[in-house]
Amino acid sequence: MAGKPLLRILAILLGIVSAFMALCLAAGILMGEDARTLFAFSVPVGLGAAGLILAWIGKASNRKISLPPRDGFL
Predict the structure, then answer these.
(1) Helix (H/G/I), strand (E/B), else coil: 27
(2) pLDDT tens digits for 14-51?
(3) 5 located within any domain
(4) Range of the domain at 51
(5) Environment class of residue 4 by beta-carbon count within 10 Å: exposed (0-12), middle (13-18) or buried (19+)?
């Protein structure tokens, strides 16, 4: 499965970006920004959190599929 490592890398990058955006969101709350502006940050932060959770689940379920032995008949 060639797509799984790529998805894991993208999820990690999204997690890094969402961590930075979470800091910006916290700073915006402390500075008293408008709720509409803060909502723009909440969507990528939520997507990053979902990406990290999916990467963690994918890592936990990293099992190899075992096939039955071949018996010579097609």
Answers:
(1) helix
(2) 778 877 877 887 888 888 877 777 777 777 777 777 77
(3) no
(4) 14-58
(5) exposed
